[in-house]
Amino acid sequence: MAVRPPQQDGDEPDSLEFGIAALSPYLSESDLTFPATADEIVRALGDPAIPYDSNGNTVALSDALGAVRATEFDTKRELLDALHPVLEEYREAGGGILSQLRALLPF
Hints:
DUF2795 domain-containing protein, DUF5789
C-alpha cells in the first residue's frame, strides 16, 4: 500500500510505502533466493523495520514472520502473501481513532 504524505516543503517523497509494498525493495536489493526459511530471509534482509501504516509505525521483519504459520517459503509471492494479513492486523490494531484523526490533520 502507498499513501501520499502530508504536503511539506523539501525533498520529501511523493508517496509513503507501507505493508508488503515497503518490504519489496528489500527483497529486490538482496541476494535472497527461494525457497528460503524465515531465518534465512531475516539474515539476508538484515531484519528491517517495516512500516505498516501511513503514520510510519513499524514492526521488525522477524516479529512479523514470527506471526506467520509457515517457516519456509517457496517463492517471493508466497512470502508476501503470508505477510500481508499480519501487516494488515498491525495496521488495524495500531491506529485507533486518535491516530486516524492525527493522520488527517495537516500539521
